[in-house]
Structure to design on (1054 residues):
């Protein structure tokens, strides 16, 4: 029985008046205690994670201890931790979303022996705040009271130690209740965990940092920064329009000078601004750190500045360029921080010489973050000399207005600088990726599949599912060595002559039940993380590489979408969704499927399923497989050609594969070769995603998970339009249809690279596609710009994406709904689904960034091992695609590299080309115009570089002790590089899509015109079927920029 109480809050208004607000608060007679010692488990309903029963005591931290020592409480050695709801809410309200999410994930993690006790919802524990009682005292009193109740609830069988840093509370409550002890956190570690070295080191680091802060605040009276405005003033100012809310994004190439605030929420609609707001200089940034949600005050227009257009390697060059900025843009200053998004930062300690130069007090050390966008952090440590060769994790504690730098503390060591494992660990920490092994509790939920106890299809599932094992030729087409096979395909002719196309996806939700331990872990990870040399799975390998993977020759559960098609026009007559049992006949790689498509049947010797067949069976099965691959491709060609007319967008990108030898040394960087079967498979996946999106939205219009791709901002296309204009092309960006047509027409017959670069620029201008809940926005906002689809989702990769698991559950619920059956799936509400979508979007960005960073790491390793003077591959052809005031941006097709090549060096010398076209540095000046830049020496020699000129470039590596190594480009000659014959195959890998596809597209268009198809019919077909051609959109628009290497053309440095 719920009991309604009143909670009184006193809030201060914008004008300073105090307002009394009364809120309803409901308490109940029982809540889950999550203890194995519970005398009434049925009453408490302890159906979740339980505390361990074999500990000597339970420990409950005070609210301040949770805030300050969370990384110590995260240590798995500490067991029996009882977090009170009061403490968790204090973290949420005072430390921001990121730390609160860390705490929530800790509580969910089955590897950690800790639980949450909802003391504020229990009648026996809830304590109203006394009149005039400070919030901090009330929180400590509530936590102590709850600890006493918990001790008695467990029948006094388990002592409880409350740890607090409030000395007054320790004295007041220390001996009040037998069995409940109150001591300081430092005393707790000294007495109960004297040998836990990691905890003591962390504790000492945090305490030392706190002492330094307190001493500094007493000594320093000079303000380095203005004070932040109070939260209520900021909120009122945002509401009135005086201040603008947004997320701070620092330009990594000019971290000391340039940051931008990306408008957020109501501010983006009400401010009337169409661009980001420039925050110029550290003073204007006012102690906000990259990623913080800030409130900004616009400066008068007379004080607006422009972003700098000169090339810059890092922030150390900021003051050296002296170049004029671009046109002034809205400029502001930060007046307050609405939400701190501080995280763990990887830093490097200064060298021995730098430590000595920092002054007398060597215990206060300025460490340099690996991420250029983060300011130096001051920490207190006596280990500076011992740690100077290592990558180290630190956390920021505070940034006072009297301090030039933020204060933080040491957390842990990752590894040696330059060591592969240490650098990979750095990438993971920088992207907040946790890759701990799956816990025992999670693995206990896994099915068994061993030679002694093989997994088999259950009789119950055979009755419930449609069995396709004897009726359908099912096969997969995946990259070589792929273990997590999410999808398979089938096509067959029905009795009436019609065709049936099937997409069969691994039924992960059969094994991963809602809110199970493995489901919670998969939800936290949200995706499989693919790095250049490894991957970190979202699900255990027993599922991802075995029972859920649709391997060849074994029975597997699947969720299928099957369409009946007209045999000639391929029009869709009807569609069926449901659970199936399949047995994949072939596990093909893309290259083998392409060979079969091209008529090269010698490849069957490399297909394992053909090896043990006699000649007759081999010929019959080969004929059957070739027909299926050919028919799938034919369907994809015609459907794609028809949809091209509706404006589906085809963009450009180079996916670079890192080739390693057996010792994991980098052997080569290979641009992935586009094949027509890539397009065939992608087209089938897009079709399935589109139809599933329509189905789940029709059944659950307010709580379906879809994927939207908003139209890009027009100003982002300005560089694309200008570059195309230099070649005499006009790019119309008013819609995806006009953009697609313009890009198709922007072909230079003498240089196919031009069209690729223009499409790459269009890709750079795109917004990111995002997951969302359909109840959170209007139907007009569902649209996927790149794929030209009104509704789209992700259904086809549940082994590696948690979003697809949610979509599978929604689809199963929709099928149950159609059959008037009870919905067994636990569906998220719109609010919960929207929160989950934000989490998945965040983890997807982390996955993309970590993949890109790891590729850059191996790329640098590759070129670092080469002698730049003698190694042929370090010299290659480059194409200029952007002009800056002191250099050019160059694209290298051979390696998919984009980077800066300077025409003016740090000594002020400019590039000059002699009679042999070789370049050297001489005194002189640069003159830039829109589409070209001219270097003129004091001797009167000049050389001009135009947009899309081919130049010879040398690739080298610029090493950095504190940051990641980067690729450095140097123009060797103003003439194209002659490609050796041995590398010609790499160039063929970069050709556009096959002439065959173009021919089919053209023939279908001519046939449609000959039949005089009416416009309204075309529009209906478009609404029903519209999808894009080309694999590039299926992959690239899902993961825009994931594998593009360093591109300094992005002026935001994001």
């Amino acid at each position: 029985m719920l009991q309604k109480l009143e909670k009184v809050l006193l809030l201060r208004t914008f004008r300073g008046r105090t307002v009394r607000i009364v809120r309803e608060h409901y308490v109940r007679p029982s809540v889950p205690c999550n203890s194995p010692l519970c005398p009434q488990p049925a009453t408490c309903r302890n159906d979740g994670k339980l505390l361990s029963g074999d500990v000597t005591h339970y420990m409950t931290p005070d609210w301040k201890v949770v805030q300050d020592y969370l990384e110590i409480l995260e240590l798995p050695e500490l067991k029996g931790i009882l977090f009170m709801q009061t403490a968790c809410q204090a973290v949420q309200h005072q430390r921001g979303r990121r730390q609160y999410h860390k705490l929530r994930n800790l509580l969910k993690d089955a590897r950690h022996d800790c639980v949450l006790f909802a003391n504020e919802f229990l009648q026996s524990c809830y304590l109203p705040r006394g009149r005039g009682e400070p919030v901090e005292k009330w929180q400590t009193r509530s936590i102590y009271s709850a600890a006493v109740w918990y001790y008695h609830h467990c029948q006094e069988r388990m002592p409880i130690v409350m740890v607090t840093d409030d000395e007054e509370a320790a004295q007041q409550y220390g001996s009040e209740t037998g069995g409940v002890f109150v001591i300081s956190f430092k005393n707790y570690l000294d007495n109960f965990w004297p040998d836990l070295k990691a905890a003591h080191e962390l504790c000492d680091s945090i305490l030392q940092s706190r002492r330094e802060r307190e001493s500094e605040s007493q000594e320093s009276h000079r303000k380095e920064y203005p004070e932040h405005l109070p939260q209520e003033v900021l909120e009122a100012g945002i509401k009135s329009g005086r201040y603008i809310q947004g997320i701070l994004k620092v330009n990594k190439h000019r971290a000391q000078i340039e940051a931008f605030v990306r408008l957020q929420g109501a501010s983006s609609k009400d401010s009337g601004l169409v661009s980001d707001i420039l925050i110029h200089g550290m003073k204007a940034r006012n102690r906000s750190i990259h990623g913080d949600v800030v409130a900004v005050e616009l400066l008068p227009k007379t004080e607006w500045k422009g972003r700098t257009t000169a090339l810059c390697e890092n922030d150390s060059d900021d003051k050296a360029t002296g170049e004029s900025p671009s046109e002034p843009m809205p400029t502001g200053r930060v007046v307050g921080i609405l939400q701190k998004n501080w995280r763990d930062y990887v830093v490097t300690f200064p060298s021995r010489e730098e430590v000595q130069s920092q002054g007398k007090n060597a215990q206060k050390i300025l460490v340099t973050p690996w991420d250029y966008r983060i300011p130096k952090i001051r920490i207190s440590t006596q280990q500076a000399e011992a740690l100077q060769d290592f990558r180290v994790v630190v956390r920021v504690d505070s940034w006072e207005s009297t301090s030039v730098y933020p204060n933080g503390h040491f957390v842990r060591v990752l590894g040696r600088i330059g060591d592969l494992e240490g650098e990979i660990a750095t990438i993971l920490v920088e992207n907040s990726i946790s890759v701990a092994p799956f816990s025992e509790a999670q693995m206990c939920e896994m099915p068994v599949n061993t030679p002694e106890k093989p997994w088999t299809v259950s009789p119950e599932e055979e009755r419930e599912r449609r069995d396709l094992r004897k009726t359908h030729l099912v096969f997969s087409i995946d990259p070589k060595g792929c273990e997590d096979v999410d999808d398979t395909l089938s096509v067959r002719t029905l009795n009436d002559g019609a065709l049936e196309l099937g997409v069969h996806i691994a039924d992960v939700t059969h094994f991963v039940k809602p809110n199970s331990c493995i489901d919670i872990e998969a939800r936290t990870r949200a995706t499989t993380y693919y790095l250049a040399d490894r991957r970190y799975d979202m699900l255990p390998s027993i599922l991802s590489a075995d029972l859920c993977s649709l391997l060849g020759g074994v029975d597997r559960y699947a969720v299928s979408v099957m369409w009946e098609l007209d045999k000639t026009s391929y029009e869709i007559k009807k569609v069926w969704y449901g659970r199936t049992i399949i047995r994949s006949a072939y596990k093909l790689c893309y290259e083998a499927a392409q060979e079969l498509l091209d008529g090269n049947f010698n490849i069957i010797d490399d297909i394992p399923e053909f090896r043990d067949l006699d000649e007759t069976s081999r010929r019959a099965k080969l004929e059957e497989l070739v027909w299926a691959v050919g028919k799938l491709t034919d369907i994809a060609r015609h459907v794609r050609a028809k949809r091209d007319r509706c404006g589906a967008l085809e963009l450009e990108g180079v996916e670079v594969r890192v080739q390693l030898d057996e010792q994991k040394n980098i052997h080569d960087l290979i641009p992935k070769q586009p094949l027509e079967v890539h397009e065939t498979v992608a087209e089938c996946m897009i079709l399935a995603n589109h139809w599933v999106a329509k189905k789940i939205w029709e059944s659950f219009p307010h709580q379906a998970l879809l994927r939207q791709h908003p139209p890009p901002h027009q100003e982002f296309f300005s560089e694309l339009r200008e570059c195309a204009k230099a070649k005499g092309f006009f790019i119309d960006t008013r819609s995806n249809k006009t953009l697609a047509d313009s890009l198709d027409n922007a072909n230079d017959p003498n240089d196919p690279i031009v069209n690729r670069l223009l499409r790459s620029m269009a890709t750079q201008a795109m917004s990111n596609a995002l997951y969302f809940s359909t109840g959170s926005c209007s139907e007009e906002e569902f649209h996927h710009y790149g794929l030209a689809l009104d509704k789209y989702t992700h259904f086809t990769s549940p082994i590696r994406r948690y979003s697809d698991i949610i979509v599978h559950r929604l689809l199963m619920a929709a099928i149950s709904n159609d059959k008037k059956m009870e919905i067994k799936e636990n569906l998220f509400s719109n609010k919960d689904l929207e929160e989950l979508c934000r989490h998945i979007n965040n983890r997807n960005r982390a996955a993309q960034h970590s993949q890109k960073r790891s590729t850059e790491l191996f790329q640098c390793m590759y070129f670092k091992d080469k002698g730049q003077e003698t190694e042929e591959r370090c010299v290659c052809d480059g194409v200029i695609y952007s002009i800056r005031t002191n250099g050019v941006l160059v694209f290298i097709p051979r390696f998919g590299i984009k980077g800066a090549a300077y025409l003016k060096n740090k000594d002020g010398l400019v590039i000059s080309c002699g009679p042999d076209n070789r370049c050297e540095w001489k005194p002189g000046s640069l003159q830039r115009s829109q589409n070209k830049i001219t270097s003129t020496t004091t001797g009167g020699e000049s050389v001009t570089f135009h947009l899309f000129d081919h130049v010879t470039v040398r690739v080298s590596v610029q090493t950095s002790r504190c940051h990641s190594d980067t690729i450095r480009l140097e123009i060797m000659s103003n003439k194209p590089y002659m490609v050796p014959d041995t590398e010609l195959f790499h160039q063929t890998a970069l050709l556009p899509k096959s002439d065959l596809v173009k021919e089919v597209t053209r023939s279908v268009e001519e046939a449609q015109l000959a039949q005089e198809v009416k416009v309204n019919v075309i529009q209906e077909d478009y609404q029903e079927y519209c999808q894009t051609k080309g694999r590039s959109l299926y992959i690239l628009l899902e993961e825009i920029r994931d594998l593009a290497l360093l591109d300094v053309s992005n002026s935001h440095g994001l």
Remarks:
- The CA atoms of residues 444 and 695 lie 35 Å apart.
- Residues 315-323, 981-1054 have pLDDT under 50 and may be disordered.
